[in-house]
Design a protein that fits this description.
Shape: globular
Helix content: 25-40%
Number of domains: 1
CATH superfamily: Gcn5-related N-acetyltransferase (GNAT)
Radius of gyration: 15 Å
Distance between the termini: 50 Å
Structural class: alpha+beta
CATH topology: Aminopeptidase
Bound molecules: coenzyme A
CATH architecture: 3-Layer(aba) Sandwich
Strand content: 35-45%
CATH class: Alpha Beta
Order of helices and strands: EHHEEEHEHEE
Strand order of the largest sheet: 1-2-3-4-5-7-6
Length: about 150
């Protein structure tokens, strides 16, 4: 696998995306949750397609200038090939001109994801104690500012 395309998720992709979600996370979103998200006008859900297969996905919501990345996942077989970075960049590119920042939570033990986010300009802005379950763990709150925020 050397090539992939990033595109918007369609209803047909949902079973594949939900299967990746189930493989990667202990409290996965259901197919219904992804279907609801697809109908949510503030959400952008992208998939990475490698050949005939969905290799990864990422989901972001933008509300009143604030973007929040719900999740990103790449199947183990397809990692370290630039797919995670491409999904993150495509989410950022999808933000409107009004967007001031993108924020996300990440498990403090998740070195791979934290490295990815830092390399793309995200900085740690806080800690959410006990944010995750199964297993319980604190989250780093990481944010990338897209515009200079002027305090009035
Ligand atoms: C985090 C994740 C999405 C990265 O996806 P990916 O396609 O492998 O990422 P990329 O190939 O684009 O890597 C981009 C950069 O991230 C960092 N990175 C990614 N995986 C890494 C690892 N295992 N160890 C150290 N750094 C890593 C590196 O800086 C890498 O750049 P490099 O390959 O030039 O060194 C993937 O590991 C994943 O799906 N993990 C499980 C789900 C998850 O934890 N999601 C995040 C929830 S907050």
């Amino acid at each position: 696998m050397s090539e992939f395309v990033i595109r918007k998720m369609t209803a047909d992709d949902i079973p594949h995306v939900a299967a990746i979600e189930k493989e990667l996370f202990t409290q996965p979103w259901s197919e219904q949750a992804f279907a609801d998200e697809l109908n949510n006008k503030s959400a952008t859900i992208l998939v990475a397609q490698a050949g005939g297969e969905i290799a990864g996905f990422a989901d972001m919501r933008e509300i009143m200038g604030e973007c929040y990345i719900n999740n990103i996942g790449v199947k183990a077989l397809y990692r370290r090939k630039g797919i995670g970075r491409a999904l993150m960049q495509a989410l950022e590119d999808s933000a409107t001109d009004e967007a001031e920042f993108i924020t996300l939570e990440v498990r403090q033990s998740n070195e791979a994801a934290i490295r990815l986010y830092k390399s793309m300009g995200y900085i740690k802005v806080g800690t959410r104690r006990g944010f995750y379950e199964q297993p319980t763990e604190d989250a780093d709150l990481m944010t990338k500012y897209l515009k200079r925020v002027v305090m009035k």
